[in-house]
């Protein structure tokens, strides 16, 4: 199996740009107030490869609109980095391996969706995730017979199932892999995707499982070269808050799409309140709450009407090593169908 498609390249962090001047000369109107989100995009340069991605995504949307009529889900997956230097040697990262995103993408594909998989480069990918980042090396799935490499028969049946699904996704052109590494690349790409997906209106679904950093170092303050250790005995890092982009996504970038975000906490006492707070603030359709410690076994769906629905693997399902995404995705799809129906009336 070839785990990487040609779309995946290594892109480089962009250079800082000077702030664009605002015209404040217009009389009789309150001085224009830039939102934090607008300020962000005015003061941070877009990744240079963005036009290439735009073309690929346009083609993907066009293909499905004209040929298959499939709904399209944007799945975000894995953690964003926060570079500390422009020529990046050091960066801040988070724990996410991309399991939630990669597994969810498989279930969306199985349920007839086309998937744009916006993922942290080198994090887990749909299908190949079964054979990478595991305790086993992929070579453990192979065996030597008469001087030739073959799949170890112990794994062959399981691998055949995965292989068929992978081929089906590829042949039906239903999976588009797009990478990001740092939070700037993530934000620019998310905004672009949202604007392009406006074409299919409510058939677009946003499933935001990526672990996005809350703090970052603005490009205007980022040293060009590697920070030198001789210069100071201590390194003090002064980070800004990443603007809350979800409101922009809901109101401006993707006003017709259904938007699902994840809320991650480690303290179970605050999870529900934080999920409700996100819905209040961003006014989107669904927050899926999860705790770091139990995220693979249970999640909670929190809705704007205040309802909370827990989804849990049963002991039997746990024993069979079933993915919780096998329960999450059908439930999300059901809500997306209701959203489409409501919006189409
Ligand atoms: C999640 O909560 C995901 O479920 C996980 C998946 C990151 C926990 P893994 O990749 O983990 O399977 O190991 N994603 C959202 C995390 C996040 O950054 N949420 C923000 C927040 O909680 C809102 S967008 O404030």
UniProtKB/TrEMBL annotation:
Matching InterPro entries: CoaB-like_sf, DNA/pantothenate-metab_flavo_C
Pfam families xrefs: DFP
Chain ranges of the DNA/pantothenate metabolism flavoprotein C-terminal domain: 71-123, 192-301
Gene3D superfamilies per the UniProt record, alphabetical: CoaB-like (3.40.50.10300)
Gene Ontology MF terms in the entry: phosphopantothenate--cysteine ligase activity
Domain of life according to the entry: Eukaryota
Family from the record: Belongs to the PPC synthetase family.
Name of the molecule in the record: DNA/pantothenate metabolism flavoprotein C-terminal domain-containing protein
Organism: Debaryomyces fabryi
Highest classification ranks of the organism: Eukaryota, Fungi, Dikarya, Ascomycota, Saccharomycotina
């Amino acid at each position: 199996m070839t785990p990487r498609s040609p779309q995946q390249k290594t892109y480089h962090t962009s250079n800082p740009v000077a702030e664009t001047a605002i015209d404040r000369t217009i009389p009789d109107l309150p001085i224009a107030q830039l939102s934090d989100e607008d300020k962000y995009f005015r003061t941070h340069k877009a990744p240079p490869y963005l036009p290439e991605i735009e073309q690929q995504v346009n083609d993907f949307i066009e293909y499905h609109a004209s040929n298959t009529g499939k709904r399209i889900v944007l799945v975000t997956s894995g953690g964003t980095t926060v570079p500390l230097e422009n020529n990046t040697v050091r960066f801040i990262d988070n724990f996410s391996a991309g399991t939630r995103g990669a597994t969810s993408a498989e279930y969306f594909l199985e349920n007839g969706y086309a998937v744009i998989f916006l993922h942290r480069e080198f994090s887990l990918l749909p299908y190949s995730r079964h054979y990478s980042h595991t305790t086993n090396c992929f070579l453990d799935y192979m065996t030597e017979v008469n001087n030739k490499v073959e799949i170890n028969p112990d794994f062959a049946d399981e691998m055949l199932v995965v292989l068929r699904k992978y081929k089906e996704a590829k042949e039906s052109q239903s999976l588009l892999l797009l990478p990001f590494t740092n939070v700037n690349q993530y934000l620019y790409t998310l905004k672009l995707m949202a604007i392009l997906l406006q074409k299919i209106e409510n058939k677009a679904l946003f499933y935001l499982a990526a672990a996005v950093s809350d703090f970052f170092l603005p490009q205007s303050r980022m040293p060009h070269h590697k920070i030198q250790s001789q210069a100071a005995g201590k390194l003090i890092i002064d980070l800004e808050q990443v603007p809350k982009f979800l409101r922009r996504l809901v109101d401006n970038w993707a006003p017709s799409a259904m938007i699902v975000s994840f809320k991650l906490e480690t303290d179970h006492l605050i999870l529900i309140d934080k999920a409700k707070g996100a819905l209040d603030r961003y006014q989107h359709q669904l927050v899926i709450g999860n705790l770091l410690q139990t995220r693979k076994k249970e999640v909670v769906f929190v809705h704007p009407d205040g309802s909370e629905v827990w989804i849990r693997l049963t002991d039997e399902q746990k024993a069979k090593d079933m993915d919780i995404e096998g329960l999450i995705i059908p439930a999300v799809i059901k809500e997306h169908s209701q959203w489409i129906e409501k919006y189409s009336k």
